[in-house]
Amino acid sequence: MSTAANTYTRGERNGFLIGMFGQNMIYNIVATGTYFYFQNVIALPAMALGWIFALARVWDAINDPMMGTIVDRTKSRWGKCRPYLIFAPPIIMIITIATFLNSNYATAASQGARVGIVAWAAVSYVLWGMLYTIGDIPLWGITSLMTEDEEKRNSLLGLARIVAGFGAGATLIVQIAQFLGTTFESKGLTYAQAQQRGFIVTAIVMTVFSTILFECAGLFTKERVQHSDQHYTMKESFATAIKNKPFRQILISGILRSPVMLLMTGAMTLLTYYYCNGNIVNAFSNPSMLLNLALIGAGVFLGMFGGMALTPSLAKKYEKKTLYNTFSLVGAVPFALVFVMYLIGHGDIRSLGYSIVCFFLFAIGGGCWGGLNVLQSAMIADCIDYEEYTNGVRTDGVFFSGQSFITKLSSGIASLISAVVFAAVGYSGVNIDRMNTALNEGADFLTYADGKYAMAMFLLVSIPPAIGMVLAAIPTWHYALPDTEHKRILAELVARRAASADAASSTATATTAPAFASSGAAPDTTTSATNTTDIDDPYII
Length: 541
Description:
Blueprint: H1 10-41, H2 46-72, H3 82-98, H4 111-141, H5 150-167, H6 173-185, H7 191-214, H8 216-219, H9 234-243, H10 245-256, H11 262-275, H12 287-317, H13 320-344, H14 352-391, H15 396-425, H16 430-440, H17 452-460, H18 463-472, H19 483-511, H20 513-518, H21 525-535
């Protein structure tokens, strides 16, 4: 009986990775671009912005497992994940663009108009989250259906995280939009109008391009792992996920690590205002400013890519639980030291020496964060195997909906934290519009509002992420699914599937036996004996 693992081809892998890149571009267009746009371009009040993001994530607590259940119950000629990867991207594209089609809160003509602006932002963002889930859960879920080989799957997940990291290049939407905004300003628009138009045009072009890439994940992949026809209801799926102890530990850990997302939501605001005085375009006429920008940005992104690239190799040598907890605790230190550096420099750490130190701190912290992202995906995939081994059902959609939920809830919690801090220092609504005008006329951001805005930005990308990293290690300190146990489980699952396939083949052969008899051919008694042995095999489910 053959137990060779069924796995993806190079073309399937590449199609999946291209789709992953496009999908993560869309995510970052919204996660970073929309946040910056809402806060710093159309000047929504800080607390309104925080509640929009937070309440959207509360809805995701219901929406994500619901979508996961729908995926698990899907039966089609393409499989259970691929249909959504084929048809969802264009729909996501439309609502992504719609989130940017709003007006400026600070310059609205009436209170009613301002309410309408906030309402449009809230509805479009919540709807985007719902539709994005339709593509996100199947995209990650299909990784456990493309191969039975654990090393191949971990390699695919590692590559997926790296490619997703490159998708974070879509955060350049801010720089591109601001650069484009300067061209509109030269045509007679006000600074605020020009910046808004720059964002709208950039969002449309980048989203359409990203959607084309996203489609590749549905068009060029194949589901190879057999799965049971037994399904759970949404209530049963949710209960199953919660009862799965290792998955529950990962879920809680990911939620506790939520403040780390402040690096994604707040980093672009920090770079734009602290290092470029409100407009990225300023860096291109100031070599010192450009160098600082490059060092800080490179620190975070190179660190993340390095961590994601190294983690699959490290996971072959060390226990995943050990790596996960080590990354969590070690990563907290550099983030905390960033704010210490800010205090030592009395609020001005734009010199080359300080920027080099910050580069290394962000690189180490970003590397640990990137490693955690890879391990989280691999450990969730392990939990799916554990569930199949224990209960005979692969709930790929429900379990990877947990990852989607962690990502989006983390973003919501991070947004609420930043809203509270920014509201406390007055960085909100019309104050931002006035600040943008002042900076455009020559004011210095470091001294604007007595430096309170600058301090708030550095605080948000350092202390809360450090606390979140430490807290993340608590639930997984005694992780319930050791690597040795998972390898044993996976080997038995591969044997079970092979036995089931042999049994199905034998049944088909037995069914066609009368046809041989009617044509005068004797039945193959050797095959019949083999069939009997296979059917009695205790591994068959």
